Amino acid sequence: MKIALLGYGRMGKIIEQLALDRGHTITLKADSKTEHLGFGDADVAIDFSLPHTAVKNIKSAIDANVPVVSGTTGWLDNYNDIVDHCTSKNGAFLYASNFSLGVNIFFEVNRVLAQLMGKQNDYQPSIEEIHHTQKLDAPSGTAITLAEAIIENSDYSNWTLDPNSKDLHIEAKRIEGVPGTHSIIYDSEVDSIEIKHTAHNRNGFALGAIVAAEWIHDKKGVFSMKDVLNIG
Ligand SMILES: NC(=O)C1=CN([C@@H]2O[C@H](COP(=O)(O)OP(=O)(O)OC[C@H]3O[C@@H](n4cnc5c(N)ncnc54)[C@H](OP(=O)(O)O)[C@@H]3O)[C@@H](O)[C@H]2O)C=CC1
Ligand SMILES: O=C(O)C1=N[C@H](C(=O)O)C[C@H](O)C1
């Protein structure tokens, strides 16, 4: 496949290497200095850019009739706008807050645990995420996806970064060099239950994004990693 990379930072560079290893070619490496996104004969676009640039990038790919997968986080207030745009242009789009196979399995474990714990009022759920200090958004997109599943299965209606709020608390820690660690904790007076996913590097995110790009390149519609991985 010919792949257009929208964002050529930490993730874009690893995606390039793994994509070349899988026999793909890279036709565009767009960064902040790129003035015009020329998609040429790209089969698919992969967007790992910045919260404030993702919407424009995704729309440009859809307008150029290029299927696009996006892993950029921090722009989801505009998600429905992108879905409408994709549908009206008969395009193809897939967003995942986390592309790694391990986290997508972890999402399912979180959902089952949330269903079991939903009516256990003695236990207080909370989420902790740890990322590198260059990360622009907080909480992480992955933590938001985890929180949404807990909210769906409990009396909570919102998540919060404020430890003093009554909403579902997400603690976002920033530590140099951490690729991404997420924990769900249910705490009671007598014990606690904790599940945790630790990314050792960024390769799992990059591989998942390429697998998603390979999957979507001949499709039309709006998809998620559940469609790609056939889990859940
Ligand atoms: N869903 C997932 O599995 C994962 C998601 N992420 C998310 O992906 C995003 C990128 O992460 P990461 O690679 O670490 O970030 P980086 O900051 O390393 O890279 C961002 C890239 O976007 C480029 N960029 C800036 N403006 C534009 C623009 N207008 N068009 C195209 N590219 C642009 C930057 O260019 P320049 O260098 O010139 O500034 C840079 O190359 C983040 O939102 C992060 O949260 C990260 C890992 C996994
Ligand atoms: O910015 C990152 O690095 C990551 N971002 C994603 C998120 O916000 O959840 C995925 C992963 O945790 C790494």
UniProtKB/TrEMBL annotation:
Key words, A-Z: Amino-acid biosynthesis, Cytoplasm, Diaminopimelate biosynthesis, Lysine biosynthesis, NAD, NADP, Oxidoreductase
Residues reported to bind NAD(+): G71, T72, T73, A96, S97, N98, F99
Compartment(s): Cytoplasm
Domain of life where this protein originates: Bacteria
Listed EC numbers: 1.17.1.8
Domain Dihydrodipicolinate reductase N-terminal span(s) in chain numbering: 1-99
Annotated ranges, domain Dihydrodipicolinate reductase C-terminal: 102-229
Binding locations of NADP(+): K29
General function of this protein: Catalyzes the conversion of 4-hydroxy-tetrahydrodipicolinate (HTPA) to tetrahydrodipicolinate.
Protein name as annotated: 4-hydroxy-tetrahydrodipicolinate reductase
